[in-house]
Design goal:
- By secondary structure, this protein is an alpha/beta fold.
- The protein has two domains: 12-67; 70-271, P-loop containing nucleotide triphosphate hydrolases (Rossmann fold, 3-Layer(aba) Sandwich).
- Helix content is 49%, strand content 11%.
- The chain has eleven helices and six strands.
- The chain has helices spanning 12-18, 22-38, 42-69, 90-97, 101-104, 119-132, 142-154, 158-164, 183-196, 220-231, 244-253, and strands at 108-112, 137-141, 170-174, 201-206, 234-238, 269-271.
- A six-stranded mixed sheet has the order 2-3-4-1-5-6.
- The longest helix has 28 residues, at 42-69.
- The termini are far apart.
- This is AAA+ ATPase domain-containing protein.
- It holds the Pfam family IstB_IS21.
- Residues 105-237 form the AAA+ ATPase domain.
- InterPro entries: AAA+_ATPase (IPR003593), DNAC/IstB-like (IPR028350), IstB (IPR047661), IstB_ATP-bd (IPR002611), P-loop_NTPase (IPR027417).
């Protein structure tokens, strides 16, 4: 083909769709016109179009992962009031939001505190940030997930159901303390914890700290074994502050009252025990 041979571009949209390049299919007329006008080399035009395709493909993937993550809306790091939870290091949380090494080795995050202290918001906010970094996250109430796993066990598919959860780099188990103390529910919970140990990360939010976990598991040995697996390579957030919802309600009804000072709490700890 020489320079004078006419080029049939009518089939190009069909070819690009066949190759699953929707961004190139949408943008090529504008960019080829610009390239002709400005005298771009062919390699530059091809590079620009493929970079745009890759960028938009990444954005579509993030949107899909955000939908499947089931994160509560609006609970982002930008919306989190770090000043109301002085036990949290903002710099530390932002470092965790980047993912990388702690997810690679299956480390866990554990947040303890009374209702309204921001545990679920923190977990969801980290979830949003990690999805934007390319990770996969699932946010779920602990009891809801355990009910699904119990159904899977009854249908002899528990191992397969837990294995399917491996696609999530981070599994957020919200309201962990509301698990019912019965053999069926706590046994599938223990199997989930054991299956993800040092492989995939968990973020657990709970009103009750470890000392009250005997109320969750049917026997002492299972309680100790579950805690041992969770805290090995873990970051623990102690969020023992006054309920944000309560403080907000008081501020609305009594605007002259100073409710900004939270109750002092224990600083967050990082646990990295030897097996």
């Amino acid at each position: 083909m020489n320079d004078s041979t006419p080029i049939d571009t009518a089939r190009l949209p069909l070819l690009l769709n066949e190759l699953r390049l929707p961004t190139v299919a949408r943008l090529w007329p504008d960019f080829t016109a610009r390239a002709d006008k400005e005298g771009w080399p062919a390699a530059r035009l091809l590079t620009v179009l493929t970079e745009l395709e890759i960028a938009e493909r990444a954005q579509r993937r993030i949107q899909r992962h955000l939908q499947e993550a089931r994160l509560p809306p609006g609970k982002t790091l930008d919306a989190f009031d770090f000043a109301s939870v002085p036990t949290l290091s903002k710099a530390h949380v932002l470092a965790l939001a980047a993912g990388d090494s702690w997810l690679d080795k299956g480390s866990n995050l554990l947040a303890f505190g009374p209702p309204g202290s921001g545990k679920s918001h923190l977990a969801a906010a980290l979830g949003y940030a990690l999805v934007e970094q390319g990770y996969r996250v699932l946010f779920t109430r602990t009891t809801d997930l355990l009910q699904r796993l119990q159904v899977a066990r009854q249908e002899l598919g528990l191992a397969a159901a837990i294995e399917k959860l491996d696609k999530y780099d981070l599994l957020v188990l919200d309201d962990f303390s509301y698990v019912h103390k019965n053999q069926a529910e706590t046994s599938v919970l223990f199997e989930l914890i054991a299956a993800r140990y040092e492989r995939r990360s968990l973020f657990i939010t709970a009103n009750a700290a470890f000392g009250a976990w005997d109320a969750l598991f049917p026997d002492k040995a299972m309680t100790v074994a579950a805690i041992d697996r969770l805290v090995h390579h873990a970051v623990i957030f102690e969020m023992n502050v006054e309920s944000y919802r309560r403080r907000t309600a008081i501020a609305r009804t009594k605007p002259n009252r100073d409710t900004s000072a939270p109750i002092e709490a224990v600083a967050p700890a990082t646990i990295d025990q030897e097996p």
